Amino acid sequence: MFISVQELELKKVYFEVAFPPGEIEFHDDGDRLSQATPLQSEGSAELLPHTLGEIRVRGRLAVTMRCDCNRCLEPAEFPIDSSFDLFYRPAEVAEDDEEIEIDEGEAEIAFYEGGGIDLKDVFREHVLLTMPMQRVCRAECQGMCPICGQNRNLINCGCEAKFVDDRWSALKKVHVKGT
């Protein structure tokens, strides 16, 4: 759904949308991040008065995302149900000045091009920023065995990782004369 500045100049735009899995592309560093449920959102978009085309988009978003657990590599689901309050400025405003100093409040502002914003892009960005940095299937996940590669949640492989302090390994090669 595209929301144009021309439309926002006339009135505030309300939206209630649902995107089925696969309609929004989520590429996140090879994670294989995908939607497990439809992404549902409702909210509004408005053109802020006395600005150079700044748009405020706020609402609520709910979706369940799926990707591999960072510890055991099994598929895991991450429910997201959060509200958002986002600000967008036209990209041309940023390009006109050579160097722009921003204060702390402006660090939360994004930019748009092409006369408006696409809600798919807004939702994609919000989902990626809301996903946890450490994506684990559950808090007690034991992960993969570093020795044999088995999933420790499924099999107790019995491997014991021996800690080797190789900081002193160079001294093993030193031969002292006369001893």
Structure description:
The protein contains four helices and eight strands. The protein has helices at 5-10, 91-96, 119-130, 169-172, and strands at residues 2-4, 13-19, 34-35, 39-47, 55-68, 75-90, 109-112, 116-118. The strands form two sheets. Strands 2, 3, 4, 5, 6 and 7 form a six-stranded mixed sheet that branches. It has a two-stranded antiparallel sheet with strand order 1-8.
Total DSSP E strands: 8
Estimated structural class: alpha+beta
The total count of helices amounts to 4
Q: What gyration radius follows from the Cα positions, in whole Å?
A: 25 Å
How many domain modules?
1
pLDDT under 50 segments (min length 5)?
Answer: none
Helix content percent band:
10-25%
Order of helices and strands: EHEEEEEHEEHH
Distance between the termini: 81 Å
Largest sheet: 6 strands, mixed
Query: Which geometry do the CA atoms define?
Result: elongated
Mean pLDDT level: 85
- Please state roughly what percent of the residues sit in beta strands, choosing from under 5%, 5-15%, 15-25%, 25-35%, 35-45% or over 45%: 25-35%
